[in-house]
Specification:
Blueprint lengths: L4 E6 L3 H12 L4 E5 L12 E2 L1 H9 L3 H5 L4 E3 L1 E6 L2 E7 L10 E3 L2 H12 L5 E5 L3 E7 L2 E7 L4 E9 L6 H5 L4 E3 L4 E9 L9 E4 L4 E6 L3 E9 L3 H6 L2 H11 L17 E4 L3 E3 L3 E2 L2 E3 L14 H21 L8 H32 L9 H8 L5 H8 L39
Parallel strand pairs: 1-2, 1-11, 2-8, 5-14, 11-20
Antiparallel strand pairs: 3-7, 4-7, 5-6, 9-10, 10-11, 12-18, 13-16, 13-17, 14-15, 15-16, 19-20
Helix pairs in contact: 1-4, 1-8, 8-9
The chain binds flavin-adenine dinucleotide.
């Protein structure tokens, strides 16, 4: 058996890879296990918010990060009853990077993994699926892979996302907050514009988000939970017509949707664990609290969890101390922001999206709260601050053991890797 690690992390998403980087930087031996062979994950959002950009700056990584392909979004808009309203403006935030970086998630994860590889105690294993926890004397002592191999560690982090196997196996209690929506996810061609046009359109009984990815729109069409089957049964022509009706500027390109294979169903969930840990194991990111896409904050919350976990645990773990008595501190620190963001997401689900897409409400004029953003632009700073920086923002306080290696050659990119991969939705 290989010698025991300090830390094994199940899940190579934003939470897992960032935690891997920070714990390795502190001198811990870390292995991140990712069940997929690559980072292609076109379906889980591309928004790297100012709070995350600030963390990268604190780590001295911001400049190299911004060399990766990305777009910079400074305003978020909503179109209601043919009126375009700017609802958030990040240009006043008290940070260096006053914008949301729209970067394909595979690019972001590849960047973090590449940086983590500078630490000799870091390793990332692809196609390594955690299937169970290893328990010894009532304490979690690592994970068991699908093929039966045991990866033992002094601490296990479950960062395996919203369908986390490890949180189930660990018996951590979960509270469901119900998500009444699902998302149909597809792309449509567009001309590249000088400014990024990301925004959402509230139509007659519809809500469509258009993420501007340069030469194509990544579209998220919100539907009531469970309605996707009926939409498919009604046929692609009917779906194309609904999209064109929801966002008339897309009418000329909807015909590029020729096959249901181009339209992925993304199931949305909203839940959180009421206890994020048990001796030997800690859950972070979506494994601790599955986030809805509303506000596009899940990636950033997952990153903040990773930073908090490293701030509290990395130093003691690197020194060989028992970190079990500290695990609850991560939950204590991160529960408040989780509750606040999930409460806001639930409000939007129940008060805006359910009436709109389930009860087919027709908004013939923009609600007062949105009109106020037009009248008093200063109000746009409030959502910008909540979405861009969040609540109880983390800063890098975990130790740097000074073991960073000089430049290492990048690993060969997976075949087919490009800005617009052919593969899309997958979980
Ligand atoms: C439709 C949709 C759109 C979204 N859009 C946005 C957005 O625009 N911006 C935003 O900030 N958030 C968005 N979110 C939320 C965001 O995707 C999540 O909150 C975020 O990805 C959580 O990061 P994570 O690292 O905790 O989990 P994940 O990103 O889910 O990563 C978990 C990783 O673990 C791997 N894994 C799973 N099981 C195992 C296992 N047993 N063993 C090993 N590896 C495993 C998975 O392959 C995955 O790589 C969206 C969510 C949805 C559903």
């Amino acid at each position: 058996m290989a010698s025991e690690l300090d830390l094994v992390i199940a899940g190579g998403g934003p939470a897992g890879v960032m935690a891997g980087l920070l714990f390795a930087r502190a001198g811990c031996t870390v292995q991140v296990l990712e069940k997929h062979a690559d980072f292609f994950r076109d379906f889980r959002g591309d928004t790297v918010h100012p709070s995350t950009l600030e963390l990268l700056r604190e780590l001295g990584l911001l400049d190299s990060f911004l060399k990766r392909p990305h777009d910079e979004v400074r305003t978020l808009t909503a179109r209601v009853a043919d009126r375009q309203i700017t609802i958030a403006d990040t240009s006043h935030l008290p940070v260096k990077s006053r914008f949301i970086a729209l970067m394909p998630q595979w690019e972001f994860l590849d960047f973090l993994a590449q940086e983590a590889r500078h630490y000799p105690t870091f390793s990332l294993r692809m196609e390594a699926e955690a299937a169970d926890i290893v328990v010894e004397n009532g304490r979690v002592a690592g994970v068991r892979l699908k093929d039966g191999e045991e990866v033992r560690a002094r601490l296990t982090i479950a960062a395996d996302g919203r369908s986390s196997v490890l949180r189930k196996k660990a018996g951590l209690p979960k509270k469901d907050l119900d998500a009444p929506i699902d998302v149909l996810w597809f792309r449509l061609p567009k001309e590249k514009t000088p400014t990024n046009m990301t925004g959402g359109t509230f139509g007659a009984g519809t809500f469509l988000v258009e993420l501007d990815r340069g030469d194509y729109w990544q579209c998220a069409y919100v539907v009531p939970k469970g309605a996707a089957g009926e939409i498919r049964q009604n046929g692609l022509a009917s779906f194309r017509a609904s999209v064109a009706k929801a966002a008339p500027e897309l009418a000329s390109v909807v015909d590029t949707l020729q096959d249901w294979d181009q339209v992925k169903l993304l199931s949305v969930s909203l839940d959180r664990l009421t206890r994020w840990w048990r001796p030997g194991l800690l859950a972070i990111g979506d494994a601790a609290h599955a986030m809805s896409p509303v506000g596009g904050v899940g990636i950033n919350l997952a990153i903040q969890d990773a930073v908090a976990a490293a701030n509290i645990l990395a130093g003691p773990l690197a020194r060989g101390e028992n970190v079990d008595p500290l695990l609850h501190e991560v939950q204590d620190r991160r529960m408040l922001p989780t509750r606040i963001v999930q409460a806001a997401q639930k409000t939007v689900h129940d008060r805006v999206l359910t009436p709109l897409v389930a009860r087919k409400a027709v908004l013939d004029k923009a609600p007062l709260v949105l009109r106020l953003f037009d009248r008093f632009p200063v109000l746009r700073r409030i959502p910008a601050r909540l979405v861009g920086l969040g609540v109880r923002r983390e800063h890098i306080r975990s130790p740097d053991a000074g073991i960073r290696r000089p430049e290492i050659p990048p690993p060969s990119r997976p075949r087919g890797s490009s800005r617009s991969p052919r593969r899309t939705a997958r979980s």
